[in-house]
Design brief:
Number of domains: 6
CATH class of the largest domain: Alpha Beta
Structural class: alpha/beta
Shape: elongated
CATH topology of the largest domain: Rossmann fold
CATH superfamily of the largest domain: P-loop containing nucleotide triphosphate hydrolases
Largest sheet: 8 strands, mixed
CATH architecture of the largest domain: 3-Layer(aba) Sandwich
Distance between the termini: 106 Å
Length: 837
């Protein structure tokens, strides 16, 4: 160990930790931020076990930086005894004893069967409860796996240890008090005016704070905007240092080393919340925001959300690492955050977790019987399996298919893999470019404001030529990616290079060549069909209220339009042609339906989310209907006699928007429901409807008949009585195989008769006698009376069933049916007249 390594709080449990781990027992270690758990525990583990140690860090920045820190402290060469492996970057060898990895790399190691060679698995910052770390914990707790170590600064270690049968160890840290203050300019953490509010908070600190300042921001975009705003007002002796996943390893290493000459204002994402310690910080400015995965519109997306109280405390604690510090929270003291963030498995679509679990051997029934810390919701697992089955990645029982196994080589998530694998080979270059274009988090064409007038004219002309045949935003993006020139078209060079790198990687994984030709309207139509079939949740329609928009107060129509898929609503900016004088093939001037490929969500759990959609591939509404999108609604039905058929007004709707309508022959369940209705009305297979109602009436009388009245010699067997005549008819028609209207002519009234002898066990003559004595409708001299028989109480209630009966009123008791001596009453509205008994 290097002489420069200082004693840290975690060292106090070193002996016990080595002993427990050496016995092969799982361990849960709780220790506050800055206690040394992330750097020292891997070294202790390597000393306690025979094989190498696998250390899982939730972020690339942490995995890489911690590996460098441990190698330096141990006096080792990075990439030999201590190494790391993250996506697209690794430094390790066969002799590596401590390997830091991201969760994605760890899952790949499990899938490839490599984890069994390790002596221990450490999952750091387990309290974050990302779906990958929860899945890794379940995989690592399987038999024959190396002992598992879970570490956290905030989790209830004793309770977690009890749940997984582990030993709980606690290493109290040394922290200094932090004075917390609140800015009362907004009620809750908000992106509204964020840059200005951060600058207003930080500027006075530059003149008063004797130490470094750490500002927590939700993402790179916010960091860039705050950097640009703070740079011009930065005081001498200060420097701005960015800390996020996009910063080069060299710059990050410099950030983690104390500065001798300059004080620093760190602009960091939540990567600085845990694992990594920034030296010299005595003042924290917390925006209270982060980007977190949520389930919206059928897929997982990043949304801008307030953090939980536990994360707020973690961030504030960063100011008390070296001496007493302060934290300014940019929201009101009255705001009440949720205590902890729910496990990610409970709040996202589970396509990716279910797919990655299957790749690692947890498929079929094994998935739900695995030793989860928190099991994934069964309904969400079923929904994910259905989508993955539709894409061909899993079979009907949830087991991995050959296609699912081969798709694992694609460097994308399960959702994107199903899009790429569902596309025919001729369309795969286009789909690779489409997915790569999602790396453009904003419009890749840069503003022309900073160019000279002549340059602006040249660039505008070049852009018109490049995009004149782009009929929609996906075409716009693909044209930029395939034929754009950063200089000539004034495109964000880094964004263009990154998108092309991703597209190239996807094509290589798919084994297809680049397609330099620009897709025509027919190609986009084929792509639309694939998207609708594979990703039906992305089918959106324009809200009906937006088809005739009301002007704003300034007299202009709204800038954005509301679109919905029936579950969520998003705002969408209409696409504008680059060349207004040229109408490209496939252009839809006022799109009302299409596939929406990207949505950004902003909001919080209390007030909801606002979605901003982009990359709409416009399609005609009837294309969505043809793909089975939405639900079929049947309006008025008609019975036609020549030839015999039933037709209905059919509408297919998505979110109350009609995609397609027209009159068509009914089929299947709708046909049987309509046929049952016409039968009971006496318009089809007459007199089958009346006969069925009479049979059900008599069946009810027999079911409730007192035992003394039961016929001699007939076993007393109480029949079941269907509650609904129409439902019985529909079931009977299904038994007879009625699916299409041309099969109506094959049926007869006798096919629909209820077999009372079989249902009751009574002989036919007895049934006929009781049907005569207890009619459903009794007719006398043109007056029809409905007979409600209450056999259990020996009572019959007559009520008028036609106009003649209403006019005549109560019938003469002498002409009534026998009714087996039951008491008989006549009822009309509130009038009750005893007739017999």
């Amino acid at each position: 160990m290097s002489e420069r390594v200082q004693v840290l709080p975690i060292d106090g449990i070193g002996g016990e930790f080595r002993s427990v781990l050496g016995q092969g027992k799982p361990v849960v270690v709780t220790a506050p931020t800055g206690s040394g758990k992330s750097t020292r525990l891997p070294v202790m583990a390597a000393e306690a076990v025979e094989g190498p140690v696998l250390v899982v860090q939730p972020r690339r920045v942490a995995a890489r930086s911690l590996a460098e820190r441990v190698a330096e402290e141990q006096g080792r060469t990075l990439g030999r005894e201590v190494g790391y492996a993250v996506r697209f970057d690794e430094q390790r060898c066969a002799d590596t004893r401590i390997l830091f990895v991201t969760p994605g790399v760890a899952l790949r190691l499990f899938a490839e069967g490599e984890v069994a060679r390790f002596g221990a698995v450490i999952i750091d910052e387990f309290h974050e409860r990302g779906w990958q770390t929860d899945l890794l914990a379940a995989l690592a707790r399987a038999p024959a796996m190396p002992p598992l170590v879970l570490t956290s600064a905030t989790v209830d270690g004793v309770r977690l240890a009890e749940e997984i049968g582990a030993v709980a160890l606690d290493a109290p840290g040394r922290t200094f008090p932090v004075d917390v203050a609140w800015a009362e300019d907004v009620d809750a953490p908000s992106a509204r005016g964020l840059t200005d509010r951060v600058v207003a908070a930080v500027r006075p600190m530059l003149a008063t704070v004797d130490g470094d300042v750490l500002v927590f921001l939700p993402g790179r975009g916010e960091i860039r905007r705050v950097r640009d705003a703070l740079g011009p007002v930065l005081l001498p002796g200060w420097e701005l240092v960015e800390v996020h996943g996009g910063v080069s390893p060299e710059k990050l290493q410099r950030a983690f080393r104390a500065s001798r000459d300059l004080r620093r204002c760190y602009l960091a994402t939540n990567v600085a919340e845990t694992s990594l310690t920034l030296p010299g910080v005595v003042q924290v400015v917390d925006t209270g925001l982060e980007r977190r995965v949520v389930h919206r519109a059928g897929r997982n997306v990043l949304a801008l959300l307030p953090i939980a109280r536990s994360a707020m405390d973690q961030r504030a604690g960063r100011a008390g690492r070296v001496r007493p510090g302060a934290c300014l929270r940019l929201w009101s003291r009255r705001w009440r955050p949720r205590p902890q963030e729910a496990p990610e498995l409970e709040r996202i679509a589970l396509d990716e977790p279910v797919y990655r679990a299957a790749l690692a051997g947890l498929d079929g029934e094994a998935l739900m019987t695995a030793p989860w810390v928190t099991p994934p919701p069964a309904f969400a697992v079923d929904e994910a399996r259905e989508r993955l089955h539709r894409a061909g990645l899993l079979d009907a029982r949830g087991h991995l298919t050959e296609l699912g196994r081969s798709a694992a080589r694609l460097p994308v998530d399960a959702h994107e893999a199903r899009l790429l694998t569902a596309a025919p080979e001729a369309l795969r270059p286009l789909f690779a470019d489409l997915l790569a274009s999602l790396t453009f988090r904003r419009e890749p064409l840069l503003p022309l404001d900073g160019l000279r007038a002549d340059q602006r004219e040249d660039v505008a002309h070049a852009r018109r030529e490049l995009l004149r045949d782009a009929a929609h935003e996906p075409a716009h993006r693909v044209h930029v990616l395939r034929a754009g020139d950063a200089r000539r078209h004034h495109i964000d060079r880094r964004a263009l290079e990154e998108a092309r790198r991703v597209a190239r990687q996807l094509r290589d994984a798919l084994g297809v060549r680049a397609d330099r030709a620009l897709p025509d309207a027919a190609t986009w139509a084929q792509a639309g069909d694939v998207l609708l079939r594979t990703w039906p949740e992305a089918a959106f329609v324009l809200r009906a209220r937006a088809k005739d928009p009301k002007p704003s107060r300034r007299g202009r129509p709204p800038a954005t339009q509301p679109w919905t898929n029936g579950d969520v609503e998003v705002e969408l900016l209409p696409f504008v042609l680059q060349d207004a004088d040229h109408v490209p093939d496939g252009w839809i001037a006022r799109p009302e339906a299409g596939v929406l490929m990207d949505i950004a969500w902003i909001g919080d759990g209390a007030t909801g989310f606002t979605g901003r959609g982009s990359l709409l591939l416009p399609l005609r509404p009837e294309r969505l209907a043809a793909a089975g999108i939405g639900e079929e609604v049947i309006g008025e039905t008609r019975l036609l006699k020549r030839p015999l058929r039933i037709v209905g007004r059919m509408e297919r709707r998505l979110a109350e928007v009609v995609l397609e309508h027209g009159e068509a022959p009914l089929r299947g369940e709708a046909l049987r429901a309509a046929a049952a209705s016409f039968i009971l009305e006496g318009r089809l297979y007459r007199p089958a409807g009346e006969a069925l109602l009479d049979a059900l009436h008599l069946l009810g009388v027999i079911r409730d008949l007192p035992s003394p009245l039961w016929p001699d010699g007939v076993p007393e067997r109480r029949p079941e009585v269907p509650d609904d005549a129409a439902a019985w008819l529909e079931a009977r028609l299904a038994e007879l195989g009625l699916e299409r209207v041309d099969e109506l002519a094959l049926l007869e009234a006798e096919d629909l008769a209820l077999d009372l002898e079989d249902a009751t066990g009574w002989p036919s003559w007895e049934l006929e006698r009781w049907a005569e004595e207890f009619p459903r409708i009794w007719v006398h001299l043109g007056a029809e009376y409905a007979c409600a028989v209450r056999a259990a109480s020996g009572k019959v209630v007559l009520s008028p069933a036609n106009g003649e009966a209403k006019r005549r009123g109560p019938p003469d008791a002498a002409v009534l049916p026998r009714f087996r001596g039951f008491r008989v009453r006549f009822e009309k509205a509130s009038r009750v007249v005893p007739l017999r008994g």
